[in-house]
Amino acid sequence: MSMNPQQPAPGPSGNRPGDPQWQFREQANPSWMGHVQPQNYRLAPGHSGGSVAQVIPASASTVGVRASGGVLGLVVGGGILAVVSLFLVVPFLLANTGTTGFAIGFAASLIPLGAVLGSVYIIDRWEPEPKRLLLFAFTWGAAVSIAVTLLIQPVFALAAPYSDEAAFRDFMTTVQAPVVEEFAKSLGLLLLLLMARKNFDGPVDGVVFAFTIAGGFAFTENILYFGRAIAESGTPGSDLAQIFFLRGVMSPFAHAIFTGTTGLIMGLAARRWHSGASVVAFVVGLIPAMILHNRWNSMGQDFLAQYVLVQVPIFLLAVACIVVLRVAETRLTRQRLLEYAAAGWFTPVEVEMLATPGGRRQAVRWAGAYNRAPQMKEFVEAATRLAFTRQRILSGRDVQAHQQDEVQQLHELVALRAAVGQ
């Protein structure tokens, strides 16, 4: 695993591949996800043979501190809000389910929650998000967004038609629930984008955070529905089985898909980040989420037909979108690591290893034969973080802060390389 810079061969136009414009024309845009404007393109550190530290502005460190402070404030503030919200949410649940219903509903809700969080783990494996931010997302969904819904819901009740009970219920189900619940859940996404923008910089991140928030929301909501089936029914066993099949088997990803559309749109906007665009993306992203939520809640007597003909295709489309995002993510990783390889940080063989799932598994197995599997996993994760840090630099957003991250990650990479080779 050589660390020596390699001399690039001349390109077909007579320019060398080390020339920024040559690289931009030929390589810099491997997919729509990694689109880079020509004016933002810059060489990877060390390409010209100079010291890495020489290309990092001295003022970058102060920007990095502010960004880290934003994440810390988000996590601490979110934790406080979650604890306060529980004083509203838990009594509400107990009042509607009773102690026994709450306990059974809690246990039953863990099953669909496991399915959603399992999907989050799979989607997030390529470039994992910080666990503290995923914890913020889950607690926001499970506690804060529920509390926000409970507080705003009475306002909508004032606007509901009172001509008859059926009309009132229809309004609350098809209008109030989609509007209030999607707004409450997506507020957490907006906070993540505004305060943790270094970790929310693309559509995959948006989907991961949205699924986590929605999984938390559905978890608490399922406790309510499952617990009510125990507390209010004369045949609690059969009623619980029926509602569990509907919510836990047929639709565990319903909330995730609703809010996932908002996360996807906000993630796309994060590619060209500024505060105004974030708020606009938040508003625009709510529209498809509310529509999908409304259509789900509007299914009536022909529920099964609509489920098969509408909801199943929507789920399959969501899966296809996630696959497309993951493919684009791997292509982006490969291109950015190739640029570091041109600067001497990796060999081409290493890039091919790091840019494919199979190559990563093979590398870990190889290292495992020499008792170096944990070190290799850290090396792979560090290389992926580095690739996405470079993408943030090339996007033109907060360049100095990300350059500071880049030089720290390059030093970490050198140490990890040494640990693997011991």
What does the model show?
The chain has 422 residues and is mainly alpha-helical. The chain has two domains: 29-58 and 330-421, no CATH class; 66-298, no CATH class. It is built from 13 helices and no strands. The two termini are 12 Å apart.
Shape: elongated
- Proportion of helical residues: over 70%
How far apart lie the N and C ends? 12 Å
Structural class, by secondary structure, is mainly alpha
- Count of alpha and pi helical runs: 13
Give short descriptive properties of this protein:
0% strand, single chain, 2 domains, elongated, disordered N terminus, 422 residues, mainly alpha
Gist of the model:
The protein is mostly helical. It has 13 helices and no strands.
Topology:
Layout: H1 20-26, H2 60-123, H3 131-159, H4 165-195, H5 203-231, H6 236-250, H7 254-270, H8 275-297, H9 303-342, H10 348-354, H11 357-368, H12 373-394, H13 399-421
Helix pairs in contact: 2-3, 2-5, 2-6, 2-13, 3-4, 3-5, 4-5, 4-7, 4-8, 5-6, 5-7, 7-8, 9-10, 9-12, 11-12, 12-13
